[in-house]
Design goal:
Largest interface: A-B, 89 and 89 residues
Number of helices of chain A: 11
Shape of chain A: elongated
Number of strands of chain A: 8
Low-confidence stretches of chain A: none
Oligomer: homodimer
Distance between the termini of chain A: 41 Å
């Protein structure tokens, strides 16, 4: 088994996440190959020194790779897992960066056992997308969740953790369903709330064009995630329906509780609830 | 009538907003007096050079002031307007910094006409509160809404605009109901969504203590406003019920629309809606 420093790493999908990971891996492995159907992304990745070389053809790009990392939207990852099984050498470490993990880990279980597969989800991102926004520092100090398959060996997990640490991130090993439930609350729900807010503001802007003049940092921050890549988020929401829908229902419940206290003009209860929530946030972030 | 440069300005309430405004006004007026029942706030304001001197007694502090600025939570502003009418000299400019304006402007209308009153709402803030967080640069480049009373003269409005420009902000004159409707959407609704998200995350943390380990910037930004001062926000919500409740209902509608598309696994419609929302946000912020 080669060490990471001796490995050729192929990154499939040169967007924000893949391009940043490729750049972060340069110097920690023998060679970084970028694979993307978009030649402009490969040209940008090469020009910026994020990859050693690129390929538009999947089979050619992953040939002789020791590590393959899937960095596309989740449902493309699912398709790639089906397609690429026969292309990989025995002993290849296959990792992905998708935000939902149950369906991906399930698809990986069906690969030949000589492929050493592992689900991954780095807890970082940006409002902007595409390789133009790629930043090799993106993973520094961030959590990187790893979801083992039932067959994943200690050795495979150790290879995954080595790679995570090489890009500056902190590994956290979680069972796939647990990761999907936690990220539904902490990541997918905030996206939906940001979208709901933006849609209401757009209605408000249509009703009164002065609205844009009073936009301030509160709206900007609360709606920030609504600027995320649409295909990426669509795939996340649709592959995590079982966890996203209950999280959304709980949020609607909480909003209706707040609305009822406002409607009843219940000063004492409203103050108490808002103070509890403020303290909950402080405690979650400390 | 004295110019701003010749005026004594009294700021009532030395929190984040009042302390910052006081500091921003230093050098633009003859003297800045800080009024607060909390002696520690006055001591901090003096030590940091935000005010020339302070008073815990309202009547003493506003005596001989040419400009009085109310920088407390909204319902305290309402009480202060009732109380302080008899304390003010004829010709005093009375301005407030409350986020909701209909009830305040209505209360101001009942003051003797020799008091030149004007509603104000600066569109800036911070997650942190108190004079310790005060920053004379807080108003730089930010919108500062001014809501005239029916009796407000051009001259009074010009004095308000001069003061707004002196602290580096950009005046925007709006009728009180219109300001309350716009800020319900762009400022008070984001606060409620941030609170709803935080409450759901706290439930999630209670169910699985690992949740805090996967908190990332998405949650942090979307929930930021839930860290706002509780009394300030309670007063805002309760004095703007007529606009906040419909905005909240529209947000719940939008969230349910998104939830329905996820539940129906409607890939095309979900992609289309998310793309529209992303574009709406870009357009609102450009």
């Amino acid at each position: 088994m080669k060490t990471l420093a001796e490995s050729r790493v192929a990154v499939v999908g040169l967007g924000l996440m893949g391009g940043s990971l490729a750049g972060a891996l340069r110097g920690h492995c023998a060679e970084v190959v970028g694979i993307d159907p978009d030649r402009a992304a490969i040209a940008a990745g090469t020009a910026r020194g994020l990859i050693n070389w690129g390929a538009v053809d999947l089979a050619m790009g992953v040939q002789e790779a020791d590590v393959v990392i899937l960095a596309t939207p989740v449902r493309t990852i699912l398709k790639l897992i089906w397609e690429m099984g026969p292309m990989l050498c025995p002993g290849t470490l296959l990792l992905d960066l998708g935000s939902t993990k149950q369906q991906i880990v399930e698809a990986m279980e069906a690969l030949p056992p000589v492929i050493h597969a592992l689900g991954g989800h780095p807890m970082c991102g940006k409002e902007s997308s595409g390789i133009g926004a790629a930043d090799p520092e993106l993973y520094q100090g961030k959590r990187f969740i790893l979801c083992p398959l039932s067959r994943t060996t200690e050795e495979t997990l150790a290879r995954g953790e080595e790679l995570v640490r090489a890009v500056g991130a902190i590994p956290l090993v979680l069972e796939a369903q647990r990761q999907d439930r936690l990220t539904a609350t902490i990541s997918h729900l905030p996206y939906l709330l940001a979208c709901g807010l933006t849609a209401v503001a757009a209605e408000g802007q249509a009703a009164d064009p002065l609205l844009r003049e009073v936009v301030a940092s509160g709206f900007r921050d609360t709606s920030r995630l609504a600027g995320s890549d649409v295909t990426m988020m669509r795939d996340i929401l649709l592959t995590n329906r079982a966890e996203v829908l209950p999280a959304l229902a709980r949020a609607v419940d909480q909003l209706q509780t707040l609305g009822a206290l406002i409607e009843q003009d219940d000063e004492g209860a409203l103050q108490k609830l808002l103070a509890e929530i403020r303290e909950q946030r402080r405690s979650l972030l400390e």
